[in-house]
Specification:
The chain has strands spanning 11-22, 28-49, 57-66, 76-79, 85-88, 101-110. Strands 1-2-3-6-5-4 form a 6-stranded antiparallel barrel. With 112 residues, the chain is an all-beta fold. The protein has one domain: Bacteriophage SPP1 head-tail adaptor protein (Thrombin, subunit H). Helices cover 0% and strands 55% of the residues. A hairpin with a 7-residue loop joins strand 2 and strand 3.
Length: 112
C-alpha cells in the first residue's frame, strides 16, 4: 500500500497512548492506556511469524488512516470490537507529504 484510498478505511478503531503515573517517591509506573482519538483505518496483512516457547504470535500489518498530528510510534491501535490490538512498529508516515493520510507498519498482538 503506497497510498491510502479513503473508501478502504472500513474499520473503526481507537488510537491509544500509555499513561504513566508517578508516586510520591518519584517512581514512574505504566498504569494503562488512554484513548487519544477514534479513527477509521484500512488493514492489510503483510507477514506472519510464530514465536516459540508459548510466546504470543505476531502478525505484521500495514495500517492506513486519515492524517492526524501527534500519532507516535509508541501508540497502539485497538479495533472497536476490542478483540484486535496493534502496536505501531514505527511512527506513522505521510506517504505523499500532503497531510491527507498516514501509513504505519504495525504488529498485531495475538495470544493463543
Amino acid at each position: 500500500m503506497r497510498s491510502v484510498q479513503a473508501g478502504k478505511l472500513k474499520h473503526k478503531a481507537e488510537i491509544q497512548r500509555q499513561t504513566v503515573t508517578t508516586d510520591a517517591a518519584g517512581h514512574s509506573a505504566v498504569s494503562g492506556w488512554a484513548k487519544i482519538a477514534t479513527v477509521r483505518v484500512s488493514l492489510t496483512g503483510q507477514t506472519s511469524r510464530e514465536a516459540g516457547n508459548g510466546a504470543p504470535s505476531t502478525i505484521t500489518h500495514r495500517i492506513g488512516m486519515h492524517y492526524r498530528d501527534g500519532v507516535r510510534g509508541s501508540d497502539r491501535l485497538v479495533l472497536s470490537q476490542g478483540s484486535r490490538v496493534f502496536k505501531f512498529a514505527a511512527p506513522p508516515s505521510d506517504p505523499d507529504g500532503d497531510r491527507r493520510f498516514l501509513i504505519a507498519d504495525a504488529i498485531e498482538e495475538v495470544t493463543p
